[in-house]
């Protein structure tokens, strides 16, 4: 079937030749193409170049095997569109309604079906649960600690302060060690929609349970089981939104998770302020903090009522062989049956490759042993680790009112990311905002040298508010969006378990260790520590985090199959490009990652080994750039200099 480079003549191929091989390569004119660490030299649509009559034959076979003959007409039109998005301009088989819907996809990308926006609303409410679960305990701890006898007025770490920290971070401990790893079995058995229903129900029940506790250890147990609702939900909702969304606005819709988590943080603080002064009534001691904890469960109950009416993920249904159900759900999520048929067939073509890969294989092991999966895991780990170690994991507000402002800014400044994440890109947002966040953390730490109490509070508040302004459109929404789309379907649940367990583990670590770190290094040193991490993470993002905007979830296989060392060299060349363009005022040619991948593979084929050594290539790029500048500015000294040619520039 696949003749990605052919002239379009009809060819006979075997089933295996119609699939990816293990490294993601397509056959070329009856033989397999040479790969670049798993990437074909041609990164185009795998259906492109197939003869019309052969494609139609394949569609008929597909429809017959999957029991879809009653929609064969739509499938044929959809397959042509999957092959070429402009096919409706060349064939007369498309109705005026079909043409309008297809053109609106390009010119009015925010015009989507009610079902898709229903998915967005439900996902947003699920995210608000997350934010409230994280925040309401900040106000409650000021009250339950005294009631349970674990309050400590000392600024030094003590048994009591450690107990409060452990109780507060109990859900994160559960997520990191246990509940995130339930994502895979729950999604396999229940599907995306039912997993969301179950986890939101658990959140509702455990929030009410927390409000009924009578001791610190009982509250710890209740909050630990709250983590069973948080972990799989935080891994499933972004994936669910990603799998239901069209590629053009997928990043914007998936990042609603973080934006509405921020809103939940704001709402949780508002609830704390609203209930803080409520007195004990009816013999109930600590009614105020009990209401705070119970209120966090209300959004969970609302989502439980919504979930039965939401569409299931079409990709999950296809993975279970339920093609008819997948088509019906796509019809709800898209405006026309032709669009639904196009997405159904294209998803099927590429997921068949993943089905071949997963047979008889250990998917946990393959997440780290197959280069494409390992690259996705590395990038997801970096962005998830960065979400906590950039300094966002701590909060020591002087008052709940200041925290309320923090939550409001976190939500408001996440709004720009809705419009920039799919145009500016995930990676670019991170590279732009991390240096700014480092500066803001240094400002915050420096404010602690101010002797005036009011001045110090103002300085710390301004520094953290500025930090939030840069954090919210960048490192705030990107990690969950990125992780939800980085992994191939056959390990997506496991990959998201790994990614979310990473962020919750470091969330737990920071929550428990921040008081001791602040005491040991003083606030200035503690904030400086995280500012330094911001710059370290900027380098890691530059080298190892790939751009994913504008690609379908299946096309990202090609992006992540490019070798890590090739992408790292690409990052270094981007620095050199920026220096030449913005500091030396030159006009260098832009750096193209895919052209680099092709050239490096050609060099490897000729056994030109330097490109196989990252640090040799890195030094070479730097030396080459410095030599070029020396030659341009000081031609007399440049003549006798001999420069070793670089494999990366071949």
From TrEMBL:
GO biological process: myo-inositol transport; polyol transmembrane transport
TM region positions: 162-184, 196-217, 259-279, 291-309, 398-421, 428-450, 456-474, 486-506, 526-545
Source organism of this protein record: Pisolithus tinctorius Marx 270
Intracellular or extracellular location(s): Membrane
Pfam assignment, any one: Sugar_tr
SUPFAM superfamilies in the cross-refs: MFS general substrate transporter (SSF103473)
Family: Belongs to the major facilitator superfamily. Sugar transporter (TC 2.A.1.1) family.
The keyword Lipoprotein belongs to this UniProt entry's keyword annotation: no
Molecular function terms from GO: transmembrane transporter activity
Identification of the protein by name: Major facilitator superfamily (MFS) profile domain-containing protein
Keyword RNA-binding in annotation: no
Highest taxon of the lineage: Eukaryota
GO CC term (a single one): membrane
Domain Major facilitator superfamily (MFS) profile positions: 119-549
Lineage start: Eukaryota, Fungi, Dikarya, Basidiomycota, Agaricomycotina
Keywords: Membrane, Transmembrane, Transmembrane helix, Transport
Membrane topology annotation: Multi-pass membrane protein
Reaction catalyzed: myo-inositol(out) + H(+)(out) = myo-inositol(in) + H(+)(in)
């Amino acid at each position: 079937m696949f003749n990605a480079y052919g002239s379009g003549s009809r060819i006979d191929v075997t089933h295996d030749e119609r699939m990816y091989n293990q490294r993601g390569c397509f056959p070329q004119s009856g033989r397999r193409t040479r790969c670049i660490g798993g990437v074909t030299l041609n990164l185009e649509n795998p259906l492109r170049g197939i003869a019309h009559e052969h494609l139609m034959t394949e569609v008929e076979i597909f429809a017959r095997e999957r029991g879809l003959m009653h929609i064969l007409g739509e499938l044929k039109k959809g397959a042509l569109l999957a092959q070429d998005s402009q096919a409706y301009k060349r064939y007369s088989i498309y109705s005026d309604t079909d043409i309008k819907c297809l053109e609106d996809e390009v010119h009015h990308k925010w015009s989507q079906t009610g079902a898709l926006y229903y998915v967005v609303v439900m996902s947003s409410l699920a995210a608000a649960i997350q934010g409230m679960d994280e925040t309401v305990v900040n106000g409650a701890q000021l009250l339950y600690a005294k009631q349970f006898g674990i309050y400590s007025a000392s600024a030094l770490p003590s048994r009591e302060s450690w107990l409060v920290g452990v109780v507060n971070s109990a859900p994160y401990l559960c997520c990191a060690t246990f509940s995130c790893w339930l994502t895979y079995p729950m999604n396999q058995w229940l599907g995306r929609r039912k997993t969301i229903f179950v986890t939101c129900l658990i959140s509702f029940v455990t929030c009410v349970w927390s409000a009924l506790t009578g001791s610190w250890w009982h509250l710890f147990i209740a909050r630990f089981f709250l983590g069973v609702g948080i972990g799989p939900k935080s891994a499933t909702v972004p994936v669910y939104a990603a799998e239901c969304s069209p590629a053009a606005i997928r990043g914007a819709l998936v990042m609603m998770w973080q934006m509405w988590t921020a809103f939940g943080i704001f709402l949780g603080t508002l609830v704390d302020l609203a209930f803080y002064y409520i007195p004990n009534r009816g013999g109930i001691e600590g009614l105020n903090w009990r209401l705070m904890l119970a209120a966090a469960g209300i959004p969970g109950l609302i989502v439980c009522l919504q979930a039965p009416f939401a569409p299931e993920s079409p990709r999950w249904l296809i993975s279970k062989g339920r093609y008819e159900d997948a088509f019906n759900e796509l019809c709800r999520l898209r405006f026309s049956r032709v669009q639904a048929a196009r997405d159904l067939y294209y998803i099927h073509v590429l997921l068949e490759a993943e089905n071949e890969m997963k047979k008889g294989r250990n998917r946990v092991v393959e997440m780290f042993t197959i280069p494409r999966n390992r690259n996705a895991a590395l990038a997801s780990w970096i962005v998830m680790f960065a979400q906590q170690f950039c300094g966002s994991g701590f909060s020591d507000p002087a008052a709940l009112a200041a925290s309320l402002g923090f939550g409001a800014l976190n939500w408001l400044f996440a709004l720009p990311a809705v419009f920039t994440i799919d145009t500016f890109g995930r990676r670019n947002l991170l590279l732009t905002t991390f240096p700014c966040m480092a500066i803001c953390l240094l400002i915050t730490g420096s404010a602690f040298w101010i002797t005036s109490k009011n001045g110090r509070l103002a300085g710390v508040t301004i520094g953290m508010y500025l930090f939030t302004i840069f954090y919210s459109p960048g490192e705030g929404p990107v990690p969950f969006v990125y992780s939800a789309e980085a992994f191939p379907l056959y390990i997506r649940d496991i990959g998201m378990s790994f990614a979310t367990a990473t962020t919750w583990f470091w969330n737990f670590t920071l929550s428990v260790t921040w008081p001791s770190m602040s005491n040991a290094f003083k606030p200035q040193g503690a904030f400086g520590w995280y500012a330094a991490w911001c710059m370290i993470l900027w380098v890691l993002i530059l080298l190892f985090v790939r751009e994913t905007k504008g690609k379908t979830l299946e096309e990202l296989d090609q992006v992540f199959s490019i070798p890590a060392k090739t992408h790292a060299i690409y990052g270094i060349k981007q620095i050199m490009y920026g220096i030449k363009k913005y500091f030396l005022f030159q006009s260098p040619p832009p750096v193209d990652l895919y052209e680099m991948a092709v050239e490096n593979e050609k060099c490897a084929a000729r056994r030109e080994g330097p490109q196989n050594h990252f640090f040799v290539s890195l030094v070479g790029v730097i030396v080459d750039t410095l030599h070029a500048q020396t030659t341009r500015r000081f031609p007399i000294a440049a003549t006798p200099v001999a420069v070793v040619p670089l494999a990366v520039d071949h």
